[in-house]
Amino acid sequence: EIFEVHIKPLKLGDDVKIEFLAQQTPGFSGADIANMCNESALIAARHGKKAIEHQDFLDAVDRIVGGLEKKNKVITPKEKEVIAFHEAGHATVSWMLEHAAPLVKVTIVPRGQSLGAAWYLPAERLIVQTEQMLDEMCATLGGRAAEKIIFNKISTGALSDLEKVTKQARAMVTVYGLNEAVGNITYYDSSGNDSFVKPYSEDTARTIDKEISKMIEAQYQRAVELLDNNKEKLTVLAELLLEKEVIFKDDLQKIFGKRPFDEIEEKVAEVIEEKEDIPATKNADEE
Question: Where are the domains of the chain?
Answer without folding.
Answer: 2-66, 77-261
